[in-house]
Specification:
Nuclear Transport Factor 2, Chain: A; alpha+beta; 43% helix; 6-stranded mixed beta sheet; 155 residues; globular
Length: 155
């Protein structure tokens, strides 16, 4: 057997082993699927106060979505913002309501009690934002631990 045929045979066996173990681990039960679906719903609900604060301009509403230790980082009009939750609450309130803001949750990724989410906003004031959230589930409740964002063309 030539050298290349031996390499091909070994790689084929490794690929077969990796593939079969991956598929064996990927099998979910109906209970797993229902739990996973409910966790996605719970995270979407945890993001809702933040989303509502965009519409109302109420910083206290946004604060309810975050842990007190949360940190917010991003750039608007080329200016870097590095805010704690108190400063971010004031910023949301100062921005005022944006009743025409639209949003969609682009994705949610969960690993046990940790999760990440990407939410897109358009027409929040004169801005389009992409927000990346890190969430944690403690005592059965999801909350935002931190956020980084991009204000797109306004940078």
């Amino acid at each position: 057997m030539s050298f290349f045929k031996k390499i091909f045979a070994v790689l084929s066996m490794v690929l077969l082993l990796l593939t079969s173990s991956t598929f064996a681990q990927a099998k979910e039960t109906i209970a797993d699927e229902k739990h996973s679906f409910s966790e996605y719903q719970a995270i979407a609900e945890a993001l809702e106060p933040y989303i509502q604060s965009a519409k109302t301009g109420n910083g206290k509403t946004t604060r309810a979505a975050f842990y007190d230790h949360a940190h917010i980082v991003g750039t608007i009009n080329g200016e870097f913002y590095n805010a704690d939750l108190d400063a971010f609450e004031k910023s949301v309130s100062a921005g005022g309501p944006a009743p025409n803001v639209q949003h969609h949750i682009a994705w949610i990724d969960i690993s046990g009690p940790a999760a990440a989410a990407k939410v897109e906003f358009i027409d929040w004031g004169s801005f389009r934002f992409t927000d990346f959230f890190v969430l944690y589930k403690q005592d059965g409740k999801w909350k935002i631990s931190g956020k980084v964002y991009d204000s797109h063309s306004n940078n």
